[in-house]
């Protein structure tokens, strides 16, 4: 009996020690922005205080944390949190970060909060990045105009490795909410992203030139794509995301600029898409000469609720008059192959629930449609599928609408 009790006490002591070690490991030296002069009144420019806190933390080994306390709002002009740093950087935002109104403070900056060249980063804390897009959306003239001014992205991860953004909210970005570029090993988890349904180019998460990126268990409601995957991207998982309103989950646009790299291995699974203009979409511009490849894509276990184009490949993408003039007759050179749509069900807001509009110059190859059940919002009217330039593929299981492959 005594030895059993002793063993139990020993076990408890070990658990307690392990918990303490874990907490100690997770909480390193704290760099509280208020100690560096930040004033949480939403009016004072706190950029310098934040940068000084970051620079000090960045020189510290272990797990330094830049802490933004709750209960206030911190006005930040555009700023770059630059690495490399000595330790694993945590930025714990419990308060509200507030972007400047309009574009005056941005000059040539394409980003508001930019993490650059950091290996090992955690952004968390339950706080909010408020991009105050409503003060700038009316100035969004791109890409309709040449020489136009693009609005700034709220949060950019540029050349970042091993980074996690979790338990934060991004609100009303001026342009994209989060951009991941030239990065590797990025986790975006339990993030809430919101902007009005009519706000221009407010994509939720845009990924390009990056690999090993996961967007999971997050809610995205904006005026543009919930998640968009651009050129040079591979090994992306989008899972447990609720999307809408917005333009859906998109690969592209591709094929507009020379030198674009391929898109390979994307899995979109277990998502709910509601009230959007598209569900899952691949879009490539008309024209272009580079045969960028898009391959190894899986879209599965997705529920659509009143989505206008639940499944769409659009190789005729050309929303502006400028591209209509430049390349009126030239089909897209982007090659799409090995794309699987599996277990996608729900309600389509238009009759054409499946539209596979591929390029005359490079027909889609290796498409799969399996267990598709998409009903028209009006009962008793059947949905349809449309195919153009689809060079074969495989189908199986339930197929509503009937396949055109
Ligand atoms: C940061 O500083 C503020 C103001 O001094 C304080 O209220 C807050 O508790 C501090 N937070 C941490 C985590 O040290
Ligand atoms: C990412 O950083 C954490 C914290 O330092 C570390 O434990 C983990 O091994 C790193 N992961 C990779 C893939 O480098
Ligand atoms: C699917 O996503 C929901 C959240 O949207 C999550 O609760 C659930 O665990 C996920 N299921 C799987 C199998 O990943």
CATH fold descriptor of the largest domain: Pectate Lyase C-like
Based on secondary structure, the structural category is mainly beta
Look at the structure and give the mean pLDDT: 91
Q: DSSP helix count?
A: 3
Sheet-strand content, in percent, reads over 45%
Shape estimate: elongated
Radius of gyration: 24 Å
How far the N terminus sits from the C terminus, by CA atoms, comes to: 72 Å
Bound molecules: 2-acetamido-2-deoxy-beta-D-glucopyranose
Short recap of the structure:
The chain contains three helices and 30 strands.
Write structural notes for this entry.
- The protein is mostly beta strands and 405 residues long.
- The protein has two domains: 25-212, Pectate Lyase C-like, CATH 2.160.20.10; 225-405, Single-stranded right-handed beta-helix, Pectin lyase-like (Pectate Lyase C-like, 3 Solenoid), CATH 2.160.20.10.
- Helix content is 11%, strand content 49%.
- It has three helices and 30 strands.
- The protein starts with a helix and ends in a 5-residue tail after the last strand.
- Mean pLDDT is 91; it is low at 8-25.
- Bound molecules: 2-acetamido-2-deoxy-beta-D-glucopyranose (3 copies).
- Residues 88, 120, 162, 185 line the site of one 2-acetamido-2-deoxy-beta-D-glucopyranose.
């Amino acid at each position: 009996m005594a030895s059993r009790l002793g063993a139990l006490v020993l076990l408890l002591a070990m658990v307690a020690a392990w918990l303490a070690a874990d907490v100690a490991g997770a909480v390193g030296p704290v760099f509280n922005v208020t100690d560096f002069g930040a004033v949480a009144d939403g009016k004072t420019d706190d950029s310098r205080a934040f940068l000084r806190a970051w620079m000090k933390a960045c020189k510290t080994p272990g797990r330094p944390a830049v802490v933004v306390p709750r209960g206030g709002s911190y006005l930040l002009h555009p700023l770059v949190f630059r690495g490399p740093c000595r330790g694993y950087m945590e930025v714990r935002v419990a308060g509200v970060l507030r972007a400047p109104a309009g574009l005056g403070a941005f000059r040539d900056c394409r980003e508001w909060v930019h993490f650059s060249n950091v290996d090992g980063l955690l952004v968390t804390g339950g706080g909010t990045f408020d991009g105050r897009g409503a003060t700038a959306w009316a100035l969004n003239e791109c890409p309709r105009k040449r020489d136009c001014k693009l609005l700034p992205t709220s949060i950019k991860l540029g050349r970042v490795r091993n980074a996690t953004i979790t338990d934060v909210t991004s609100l009303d970005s001026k342009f994209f909410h989060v951009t991941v570029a030239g990065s590797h090993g990025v986790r975006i988890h339990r993030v809430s992203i919101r902007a009005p349904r009519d706000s221009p180019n407010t994509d939720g998460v845009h990924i390009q030139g990056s690999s090993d990126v996961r967007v999971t268990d997050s809610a995205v409601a904006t005026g543009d794509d919930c998640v968009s995957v651009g050129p040079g991207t591979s090994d992306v998982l989008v899972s447990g995301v609720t999307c809408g309103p917005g333009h859906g989950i998109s690969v592209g646009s591709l094929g507009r600029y020379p030198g674009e790299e391929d898109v390979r291995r994307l899995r979109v699974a277990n998502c709910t898409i509601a009230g959007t203009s598209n569900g899952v979409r691949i879009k490539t511009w008309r024209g272009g000469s580079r045969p960028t490849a898009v391959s190894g894509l899986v879209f599965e276990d997705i529920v659509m609720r009143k989505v206008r184009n639940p499944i769409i490949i659009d190789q005729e993408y050309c929303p502006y008059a400028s591209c209509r003039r430049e390349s009126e007759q030239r089909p897209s050179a982007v090659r799409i192959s090995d794309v699987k749509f599996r277990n996608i069900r729900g309600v389509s807001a238009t009759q054409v629930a499946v539209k596979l509009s591929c390029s005359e110059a490079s027909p889609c190859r290796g498409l799969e449609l399996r267990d598709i059940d998409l009903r028209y919002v009006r009962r008793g009217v059947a949905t349809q599928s449309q195919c153009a330039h689809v060079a074969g593929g495989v189908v199986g299981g339930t197929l509503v609408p009937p396949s055109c492959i």
